[in-house]
Structures are given as structure tokens and as C-alpha cells.
Amino acid sequence: MFLSVGVRFEANVEALNMVETAGNYTKHRRVPYLVEEDRKLKTIYVPAISGESLAHAYQWSLVKEALAMNLPVCEDCAKGEFFKSMNKAHLKKKINPIPDDSKKIEAAIIKSCIIEDVGGFLYAEKPPVRRSSAFQVSYALPIKSMALFATAEPQLHARHAQMDAKGKKGNVSEQMIYYVETGTALYGFTFNLDLDAIGVSSLGAGPIIPEEEIKARREASLKALFRMLSSAQFGAKLSRFFPVGGITELTVVVTEHPFVVTSPIYDSYVERTKKRLEVIKEAFGEDYFFDSTNEVPEETLRKAIEYLKEKGYI
Ligand SMILES: [Zn+2]
Q1: CA 110 to ligand 1 centroid distance, Å
Q2: Among 1, 2, 6, CA closest to 274
Q3: Eight-class DSSP state of 233
Q4: Which residue from 261, 93, 114 is spatially nearest to 190, judged by alpha carbons?
């Protein structure tokens, strides 16, 4: 089973993804974007949020759901440090001595950590072992029809330094002035989750953990997505730049084989997704789940989880 979600959210005055600091100026991530204006194509630069930023938030959410369900999370991942068994020092915490067989290494990692099972890993030693992530996430980009109105603007901030008893300042200046670029846009992004990849070897060794635990891991992965979207705990600087807005539209599709919702950056994405699903149903005779809302996004996610439960998948 494959789950694909299209999300549209409004974020006014956000600093969700900062890329560099030049002196006292912190820049928002921006990407080139192709738009059509007066029947001509042109490139503009728009505020964006990287897939990596969203993936980190998802995996952190998965850590919490997994621990609440008593599923294994390794020591590094439990701290939100996603080293992913990258070298001997980190892998030794899971299996010691380290075997020469890549299948045994993969099995040891999957058994001891759901984050690396779902989010993939790269052990870059001999023999190298790599696992692709079972979830995929796009950049969050302004929706096409409104991209020209998306903006990024610096905001002035001041931080105060401590004064001594006589009110004199020491070596530091009394005030530190800095600028943070804030973005504003109606963003769209896609999130996919391949439920069949969870708990199963990517080196052809079949299921690595018992069926019951695979089901529990699938459930934790769905709950993590639910929680991440519902709590809006993604991106940086939330303590002072929590974006004003929220999810405006959510579309969820569950199919037997990989199928990705039409990108929510296009205004017709809901209708197009529906039409594509109908064609697949006619051509292959495959069942699917589809739901879309611009009211309560949690309700749509709940229905998708119910559907997977009915199918005996979680
Ligand atoms: Zn881990």
C-alpha cells in the first residue's frame, strides 16, 4: 500500500527555513520558479522550505510516536541526531562486532531502529550498506497562481546585552541589531509513504521483523504524519516566528501501488488526481482511497488510517 498526501498551507510572516547568515542578516531559503505572466514564461525567486527541513520534522515526530508505542528507536535517533549508522562508531552501538555481510548489517539496523527503517540510512564503510527512505517529501513551494505575490522581507530585531552596576556597557555593545528574512506565501507540498517498504529488506532478504511489528511500525509512521501536520511543528524559528495561518487544503490517497497526488502547487490538482485514479481503476482494476478537504484536515487523515485498518494493513 502506498499513501500520498498533498498539502496546501498558508504561512504569513514565517522563518521556517533559513539558509545562511551574512553578518547580522539571516536569509530565507529561496528557489527559482517558473511562472507564466501575460502568456510569457519567466523565472522569479520565491521563498521555499526544503524537503530536508520537512523530513527532519517528520522523523522527529516519528521518534515520539514510536517511543509511545514501545517500538525500537536507537540512542542517536532518540536524541533527534539522525546520524543513521553512518560509520563504525555509530553502527557499533547497534551491533558489535560488525559483521562482513551487508544483509546482516541491514537486518541489525532495521531491528534496532524504526527511524532508519522508515527514513533510510547510509553506512559508508566496508561493505557500504544503503537503504532508501520509505517516505518522500517535496520542497514546500508557493502555489503557481499566487507565486507572484509570495514575498520575503527582512525584519529588524534587537537583543540587549547586560550592563554593569554603573550602567556602563562592557566590551559588548549594548544592543545587537539583526535582521531575519521572513517569507509569506500559500505553500504546497507532497508527502509519500511506501508502507510496503517498512520492516522489509531492500537487499532482497524479505521481511526482517515479525508481521505484527511491521503493522505497528506502519501505524506509527501514519500517526507521525498526522501529528506533524496537525501540530504544525515543522521548520525553524517556531518560538518567535510561528507562522500565522495553517493548513487550507489536504488531499489523501491510498493505493495498492505507488501513486503520487498531482502536486498541490496547481489549482486543479484535486480534480486531476481524481481523474488519474479513475483511469488506473479502469485499467488495472485496483481499489483506492481518496479524500480531500478544505475544512478539517485531521478528519481526512483519520479516514485514511481507518481505511488501512479495514484492509488489515495496520
Ligand atoms: Zn536510529
Answers
A1: 9
A2: 6
A3: -
A4: 261
Residue 80 alpha carbon to ligand 1 centre in Å: 9
Determine the distance separating the centroid of ligand 1 and the alpha carbon of 143, expressed in angstroms: 35
Instruction: Please list the pLDDT of the chain residue by residue as tens digits (314 residues).
Output: 999 999 999 999 999 999 999 999 999 999 999 998 889 999 999 999 999 999 999 999 999 999 999 999 999 999 999 999 999 999 999 999 999 999 999 999 999 999 999 999 999 999 999 999 999 999 999 999 999 999 999 999 998 877 666 655 555 667 889 999 999 999 999 999 999 999 999 999 999 999 999 999 999 999 999 999 999 999 999 999 999 999 999 999 999 999 999 999 999 999 999 999 999 999 999 999 999 999 999 999 999 999 999 999 99
Contacts of 291 (CB under 8 A, 6+ apart): 251, 252, 300, 303, 304
Q: Model-level pTM?
A: 0.94
Q: Are 115 and 65 in contact (CB under 8 A)?
A: no
Residues 6+ apart with CB under 8 A from 282: none
